[in-house]
Amino acid sequence: MADQTFLNWPFFEPVHRELAGTVESWAMTRVEPIIQAGDDLDATCINLVRALGESGLCRRAVADSASQIDVRSLCLIRETLARYSGLADFAFAMQGLGAGPLCLFGSDTQKAEFLPPVSRGDALPGFALTEPDAGSNVAGISTTARANNGHFIIDGRKTWISNGGIADFYIVFARTGERPGTGGLSAFIVPADSEGLVIEERIDIMSPHPLATLRFDSVRVEADQMIGEPGGGFKVAMATLDVFRPTVGAAALGLARRALDEASTFSKARQIGDTLLSDYQMTQASIAEMATAVDASALLVYRAAWAKDNGAPRVSREASMAKLFATEQAQRVIDQALQLHGGQGVRSGCKVEELYRDIRAMRVYEGASEVQKIIIARQTLGS
Asked: What is the pLDDT of residues 112-161, one digit of tens each?
């Protein structure tokens, strides 16, 4: 079992320590059998969500208001799941991120219709923000939602959409034109079976996850499917990412902890002549660097989560620091673990090889490292 002493830090309450044990026990017994049960990525992801729902863990990612979302709990769950499987972490994370706009800004009617199935694991949401020419530059969104006699007509394309192709509904951000730039965006609930919504492409990546490009050809949505106020889509998106960005750092932290565990176990068993690999000072230096990076990442991740849970209205700076540092350091830790494994580390099926593929995308999605640096700098400079 990975080091649990960090749970004694003052960021946590007894309920968090209890949760950590519950998630650990569940992940230890349930994740691997589901992953091994089939080769179909979509079915595996859906089965993971169903199992997470049955366990009650999905309810942790879905709440009726911002005050009910405990970010420390989300971080603990993502960190633990990521240690066992990047896909299990993804399945849980998307239940939260996809439903986040509804939790934070949805009407009572919208929440009553869409949130219970997500919290049970019976429905999968998607968060459709990114476009071919608008990634971190949200102001560049070109998908339009044109008002037309009490409903809206959506036209455009979204890409790199998680749960694309398997989601039951998508939260779609489109330009309604109230103001220029980010002030003219609105958010909509779009059922996956809407006429005119096409899965244009399924995207394969080095760490397999359900991703797709979506095309909207005159997709009609009713006016009451708008989330929040007209022109408030940017606020909806940023507030949602503000809550969930520290959890990306937590997932990276989970990958790094697993890499440290794998490196420690391997080095204590690997015999080189008459000497264990762990007895070499160069190995010990690597282990020390890895352990320090893991703890430093954990401090930043759980500081951001603690601040949000304790009423900070925005934690953009803290969340970006956590995401930036934890993902970058996890890449380094995993690389060191792979190096200690030698040839075994690049062999398909070796855990550190899997971790190496899993971590790379985390430095890009939900705001690349370069974007996090810009956010941190602007907040620090007061601009």
From this structure: 999 999 999 999 999 999 999 887 788 889 999 999 988 999 999 999 99
CA 112 vs CA 125, 131, 151, 172: distances in Å: 15, 29, 21, 19
Gap between the Cα atoms of 65 and 44, Å rounded:
30
- Domains of the chain, by residue range, sit at 5-120, 125-230, 235-381
Dump pLDDT digits (tens) for 40-97. Answer: 999 999 999 999 999 999 999 998 765 688 999 999 999 999 999 999 999 999 999 9
Residue with tokens 């990076």: 293
Q: Is it true that domain 235-381 has CATH number 3.40.50.970?
A: no
How many other C-beta atoms lie within 10 A of the C-beta of residue 135? 17
Two tokens, residue 323: 């995401």
Q: Can you give the pLDDT at residue 68?
A: 80
Rounded to an integer, the average pLDDT of 223-240 is 94
What are the phi and psi torsion angles at 220 (to 5°)? -90, 130
According to the CATH classification, is domain 5-120 in 3.30.420.40?
no
Paired tokens of 232: 């408030």
Of residues 13, 229, 366, 370, which has the active-site annotation?
366
Confirm or reject CATH 2.40.110.10 for domain 125-230, answering yes or no: yes
Written as six digits, the tokens of 21 are 């044990």
Beta bridge partners of 272: 275
131 included as an active-site residue: no
Contacts of 112 (CB under 8 A, 6+ apart): none
Q: For residues 41 and 46, what is the distance between their CA atoms, to the nearest angstrom? A: 9
